[in-house]
Each structure stands twice: as structure tokens, then as C-alpha cells.
Amino acid sequence: MNQDELKALVGQAALQYVVPGEIVGVGTGSTVNKFIDALASMKDRIAGAVSSSVASTARLQALHIRVFDANDVDQISVYIDGADEIDPAGHMIKGGGAALTREKIVAAQSTRFICIADESKLVTTLGAFPVPVEVIPMAARRIERQFAAMGGTAKVRMKDGVPLVTDNGQCILDVSGLAIKDPLAFESEVNQWPGVVTVGVFAHQKAAVCLLGTPSGVKTLTF
Ligand SMILES: O=C(CO)[C@H](O)[C@H](O)COP(=O)(O)O
């Protein structure tokens, strides 16, 4: 099975966590796209979705799945999203698709985070994947220096030759060279730096379940 097929496998498997009659939280990325496509098969049995990005909203709406504003919804039972890395405790690095801020908002609004990923995303220690951090552009240089003091190298994410602009009108720093041994402490610290909108370490909103796509089928990890 190739990576795309593994993503489709977990996207389909995630349907068992969707609560009929309710609103489901929907993440962003290529694995979530497989989930959204699978969700279309039960669109008449759910109330709709709260989406974490403009891209996911467009895909949901194209499949005639109603998308609610997060402000119009109270608690969500289940949030389904991918990850760039997940550790054995369910802590994740997210934001490879630049949607980390809205992802963290919807995850915070949800009781259970169900992570869907292919098995290449499982790591012992977070940090080989550069940590995405959404920042206010005028603070970017200062935050780069703060990461340098920690031993990391931060680079502004580019798209088509110019700094990428997120759905929230901000920019992304990708920080390499970090081995994140204490994800909770790291997330708490970076969150306090002026100009940081969201750090792409999800330790306070970690996964409750991870559906990992492997060549022998879906492996379920619970945390
Ligand atoms: O955090 C994310 C987007 O901001 C994605 O969930 C993460 O990048 C994984 O993406 P993919 O499923 O395409 O590998």
C-alpha cells in the first residue's frame, strides 16, 4: 500500500468515531481530505461540521456537508485531524498545512481528538519535523532569535516566492533543530512569547486516539 492508500484507510476508519446526529470537528490536510471524502457517505446522518481551514470548508461544502461557524456551536464530541508527528503519549506536531491556529481552536472545543495518520508519523521524540509557529509578521525576527537561543533555526515559510499568508493573515515560522523532550513545557513557554499566535505543538490538546495506517491495516493507539 502506498502512502495515499494508507491515508484513505485511516480516513475511512475515522467514520466509526463520528457521532450520528452531531456536528463533527474537521481538521486540515491530505489525510483529512480522505476523511472528508468518506464523510460524504454519511452526510445525511450528521448535523454538519466545524472546519479548521478555508480549504477544508471548501471541500466539505463541495460535498454538501453543512459547515457551522465555531462561535455558533458549543462543545463538539469528536475532532478528526492529521498530524506531522505523533509521539507515544499522543503529543503532536501539527501545522504542515499552515492551519494550526484554527486546528487548535476546534480541538480545544472538542472532547476527543482522533488523530489519523500513516505510520511514518509516529516518532519517539517530537522535533525532526520542523515545528510550525504562526506569528504576527512584525515579531518574526525577534521570535527567530528566541528559537536560536534554544538551539533551533527558524525560517519564514514561503509560497510562490513570497511569505505564506495564513487563513488568519499571519505568517509561519518553521523551526528545525529542536528535540522536544517535554512537549507540555515547550508549548506553554512558546505560547507566552509576544507575537506568537500559535505554536504547532499540540500537547495540551493531545490526541485521545490515533488511527495509524500500516500495510497490515489500521493500528489503533489510545492515550
Ligand atoms: O496540521 C496539519 C495542517 O495544518 C495537518 O494535519 C498535518 O500537516 C498533516 O497533514 P497531512 O495529512 O497532509 O500529512
UniProtKB/TrEMBL annotation:
This is Ribose-5-phosphate isomerase A. Catalyzes the reversible conversion of ribose-5-phosphate to ribulose 5-phosphate. Its EC number is 5.3.1.6. Homodimer. It comes from Caenimonas koreensis DSM 17982. It is an enzyme of class 5 (isomerase). It catalyses: aldehydo-D-ribose 5-phosphate = D-ribulose 5-phosphate. Belongs to the ribose 5-phosphate isomerase family. The active site is at E103 (proton acceptor). Substrate binds at T28, G29, S30, T31, D81, G82, A83, D84, K94, G95, G96, G97, K121.
